[in-house]
Amino acid sequence: MKRDVKAIVKEMTLEEKAGMCSGKDFWHLKGVERLGIPEVMVSDGPHGLRKQAEEADHLGLNESIKAVCFPTACATACSFDRDLLQEMGERLGEECQAEDVSVILGPAVNIKRSPLCGRNFEYFSEDPYLASQMAAAHIKGVQSKNVGTSIKHFAANNQEHRRMSCSSEIDERTFREIYLGAFETAIKEAKPDTVMCSYNKINGEFASENHRLLTEILRDEWGFEGYVMSDWGAVNERVKGLKAGLDLEMPGSGGYTDKEIVEAVKNGTMDESVLDTAVERILNVVFHYVDNRQEGTFDREEDHKLAAKIAAESMVLLKNEGILPLKPEGKKIAFIGKFAEQPRFQGGGSSHINSFKITSALDAVKEVTEVTYAQGYDIKEDKTDEKLHKEAVRAAKEADVAVIFAGLPDAFESEGYDRTHMRMPQCQNTLISDITKVQKNVVVVLHNGSPVEMPWADDIQGILEAYLCGEAVGQAEVDLLFGKANPCGKLAETVPYKLSDNPSYLYFPGDGKTVEYKEGVFVGYRYYDTKEMLVRYPFGYGLSYTTFAYSDMQISAEEIKDTDTLKVSLKVKNTGNVAGKEIVQLYVADKTGAASRPVKELKNFVKVELQPQEEKTVEMELDKRSFAWYCTELQDWYAATGEYEILAAASSQDVRLRKTVRVVSSQEIPLHVHMNTTISELMENPKTNSVIQELASSLMEHMGGSQDGEEGTAAAEAITPEMSMKMMENAPLRAMRSFMGMNGEELEALIKKLQEAASM
């Protein structure tokens, strides 16, 4: 049935309307029984249902229902698989329907600016395009079951240190291209029911009170139609926030801020229509869920199997010197490390799932072969237990292969605080190092939500990055280690050699009051690749048990308008002897020189499954945004006229094929001529070039560039023609007064003439 929400709002009292704009408690919205408005529940996500009891807290000190923990975003992003994320979203939507949850909070798409952010395990990537594509697929999946999502944390929330008060100081272009970029496509294409605003300030203004962010950009530009909710406790000034576009405060404030809203309407400091609009947005989402209630199934065993499948598709094989897959026949294999028995598979904080079942590698390997096991280390503190250590080294020495399960304990990374270094516990590093001295066949399986330094990487034969891969992590690990599944994940972030290599190193996490994003658009691989810096493992990198060849790259045109779509195709062949999946990444390199840009940027990708020796043609598209950068003068996306390289790659540092296309822009960046406009700017602009050329040679003469003195004279050596040319090009128009004797009126007339030419 179609509800007349506007009519319902008209029947509500002022107090009822104000009440709808804050939670009843931690997880429920208020209802109005007399008008048929029910109380509905929201629940933490994003990689599992964390439905808590009535007496609940946000961070999970109280128990939540037994549920299924799917792999976290740090892992699923490595799948580069839109269909897989949508399937996971559909399953989460079904679980929500079964448990009567109207909105699941997530996905979280904040950019991984630094490896130290304590919440990176919940975030997809350092790349906004990949993050937005994964988020869009997740949202579409959940909302196909008529359950809402809440894309978060909007925006520039890239650290935990003083996250509720610190101001992210960020320039407009960087904000648009990197930090808003992760949200934009997901919001436009997948249309999440709600958006969750972040705690932090952005350039001095709280996100929860930022009209430009919550209304001008989110609604007016991007067309968002749902409601905006606060992160839990993110509200500073409630009335100001409501005016800015913050519809729902979570959790409730015990009626305190509701009274502020009522008072603001009564004393005329806020128009009641602002409140009415917020209530309409909230009710539209509430009734969409209520009027589309489904039975929903929550088959935990089936969902556990799906979690294992997703985990196997997401883990990344970082190193393999012929040691993997393991052959159990006639081999003595040792599993070493606490995480083999008790895996770390999720992060701490508001997303922590009360998993109904956990499959460890030790559990799963029983179906394959017998292994010996040694704990090796404790996870309670970073301290070598000599007894455990010696037992593990001995077990490794006596085996044919040692598989070490290592990584970061819960205490090393969690919501609420950031890491201070990139190191694993020293007791684990020491153990790995000591084992390599007695055993040459060593594989390390990593459990971590963010990159770690690997001082032992050159001394071992295999590394499997499992990230935090959900409750079925052990099943997926064993399937990959023994070749039942073929690794097909690729890194959604760069793994640097050391923390100080990271572009945000000098600025993260700021002084507690502000944090400056001085690296600009050069985040992650955009920085490393542009700087030609060596990294441990590049963005987009991952190995397989087979090999792939790329060939025959084709583009639909050699020249396009910026309003056109370019079609790109290439052939991919599985050149090995086992089936596998390859992730083909499409990067664009701007060769126009119109702006300072990264050497390449990811603009599309496709995952293709191939049988041994099978070849398929894959196709991708590039639109204007694939070539464009955000021009603050235009306040719009701008693709300059000129050449762009299209790069088909297996990682950001493994380009296989390339083609060049010329893009013709339909836009012009307006030239505003003034006293300090340089000669070179005027010469580069075709409309002003002819006007300034008349004066350029004369100006160069006055700067000493046309000397008739003999070669080798002091004057000729002091001022060379090359020097004069550069001095002339870099000179502002006001130099005409000093070097050419032009008076003020003549200069003003020249500026007017140039501006008229530029505006033609």
Automatic annotation (TrEMBL):
<dbReference type="InterPro" id="IPR050288">
    <property type="entry name" value="Cellulose_deg_GH3"/>
</dbReference>
<dbReference type="Pfam" id="PF01915">
    <property type="entry name" value="Glyco_hydro_3_C"/>
</dbReference>
<dbReference type="InterPro" id="IPR026891">
    <property type="entry name" value="Fn3-like"/>
</dbReference>
<dbReference type="InterPro" id="IPR002772">
    <property type="entry name" value="Glyco_hydro_3_C"/>
</dbReference>
<dbReference type="InterPro" id="IPR013783">
    <property type="entry name" value="Ig-like_fold"/>
</dbReference>
<dbReference type="Pfam" id="PF14310">
    <property type="entry name" value="Fn3-like"/>
</dbReference>
<keyword id="KW-0378">Hydrolase</keyword>
<comment type="similarity">
    <text>Belongs to the glycosyl hydrolase 3 family.</text>
</comment>
<protein>
    <submittedName>
        <fullName>Glycosyl hydrolase</fullName>
    </submittedName>
</protein>
<dbReference type="InterPro" id="IPR036962">
    <property type="entry name" value="Glyco_hydro_3_N_sf"/>
</dbReference>
<dbReference type="GO" id="GO:0016787">
    <property type="term" value="F:hydrolase activity"/>
</dbReference>
<dbReference type="InterPro" id="IPR017853">
    <property type="entry name" value="GH"/>
</dbReference>
<feature type="domain" description="Fibronectin type III-like">
    <location>
        <begin position="582"/>
        <end position="652"/>
    </location>
</feature>
<dbReference type="Pfam" id="PF00933">
    <property type="entry name" value="Glyco_hydro_3"/>
</dbReference>
<dbReference type="InterPro" id="IPR001764">
    <property type="entry name" value="Glyco_hydro_3_N"/>
</dbReference>
<dbReference type="InterPro" id="IPR036881">
    <property type="entry name" value="Glyco_hydro_3_C_sf"/>
</dbReference>
